[in-house]
Amino acid sequence: MKNDCTFCRIIHGLEHGAFIHQDELVVAFLDINQASPGHTLIVPRIHVPSWWELPDEEAAAVARVAKPIMQALRMTLEPDGINLVQNNGRAAGQVIFHVHMHVIPRWQGDRRFGRPPAYADRHTLDKRAAQLRAALHKIGCA
Ligand code: 5GP
Ligand code: ZN
To answer: Are the C-beta atoms of residues 106 and 82 closer than 8 Å to each other?
Structure first.
């Protein structure tokens, strides 16, 4: 745990996160700036800045959970497509230096990656997270 890392603080319950999934290796919660409705972050529990530093086991866990999360997003929000986006380094657009994968639902004709993203209040995120948790539960990925 890195005390000044926002994602470490969310993972350890020191800051609010609208969680949709938690297991021993990774968690997933909604991005506070929703590039599109349902924009989710899959975040390994260990504090590692970049993907190239991530142990294989955690990298595999991110990929493993991406699939049911995408299915849950498709079930609840019916997007036309989904982007998986992963930024490493400031030059690549990384802002939070705790490795993570973006899962961004897309609709035909929407703004590219929804820029600028819309800040979502806690109530909206919590409600959306509850729907997604229910869908994940149905799939058998609680
Ligand atoms: P990056 O640009 O590093 O790949 O993405 C970092 C993401 O973290 C951004 O999309 C940003 O909106 C999100 N983010 C920053 N601070 C918080 C926070 O406190 N809570 C949540 N849920 N997301 C955050
Ligand atoms: Zn961290």
So the answer is: yes
10 Å Cβ neighbour count for 16?
13
Confidence of residue 8 (pLDDT cuts 50, 70, 90): very high
Q: What's the alpha-carbon Rg for the chain, to the nearest Å?
A: 14
The residue segments making up the domain with residue 122 are 6-138
CATH of the domain at 29: 3.30.428.10
Name the pTM for this structure: 0.96
State in Å: Cα 6 to ligand 2 middle.
6
Q: What is the pLDDT of residue 120?
A: 83
Ligand at minimal distance from the CA of 2 is 2
Of all atoms in ligand 1, which is nearest to the CA of residue 95?
A: 3
